[in-house]
């Protein structure tokens, strides 16, 4: 398999990538905040300068854009090391991805039906 050092490095990078995913989704701009404040009527104090907007943009759209390709690269690397056959791989992915996907869609649909 892989060495303990490589495993620790991948785990550390996965943690960093997860933090970057949070930054991708945290892309508030003054316009979005003012729009939500006008809808809710709440007063919001948010006046970033151009440097902080640039930092936010750089982290969210610059560094953040590499997160998902790197997650796929790590997954592919680890999958190659396992050397499972294709039918075994499909069976595992069906259990871990497809079934939960449809379960969550079903939960959401039930929620939407009974909410109204």
TL;DR?
This protein is mainly alpha-helical and 116 residues long.
Q: Could you please describe the fold and organization of this structure?
A:
The chain has helices at 4-25, 30-40, 50-63, 67-82, 86-115. The model has no long low-confidence stretch (mean pLDDT 84). It has 116 residues and is mostly helical. It has five helices and no strands. It is flat, with a radius of gyration of 21 Å. Helix content is 80%, strand content 0%.
Q: Pairing-aware structural class of the strands and helices?
A: mainly alpha
For the residues shown, what is the average pLDDT? 84
Beta content comes to: under 5%
**Continuous helix count:** 5
Backbone shape = flat
**How many β-strand runs?**
0
Low-confidence stretches: none
- What is the N-to-C succession of helices and strands? HHHHH
Approximate helicity band: over 70%
Largest sheet: none
Taking all Cα atoms into account, the compactness measure Rg is 21 Å
Distance N terminus to C terminus?
A: 52 Å
């Amino acid at each position: 398999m892989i060495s303990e050092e490589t495993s620790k490095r991948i785990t550390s990078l996965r943690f960093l990538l997860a933090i970057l995913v949070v930054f991708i989704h945290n892309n508030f701009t003054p316009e979005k905040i003012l729009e939500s404040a006008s809808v809710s009527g709440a007063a919001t104090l948010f006046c970033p300068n151009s440097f902080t907007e640039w930092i936010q943009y750089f982290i969210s759209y610059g560094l953040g854009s590499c997160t998902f390709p790197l997650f796929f690269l790590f997954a592919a690397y680890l999958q190659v090391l396992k050397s499972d056959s294709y039918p075994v791989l499909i069976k595992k992915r069906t259990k871990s991805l497809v079934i939960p996907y449809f379960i969550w869609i079903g939960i959401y649909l039930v929620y939407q039906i009974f909410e109204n």
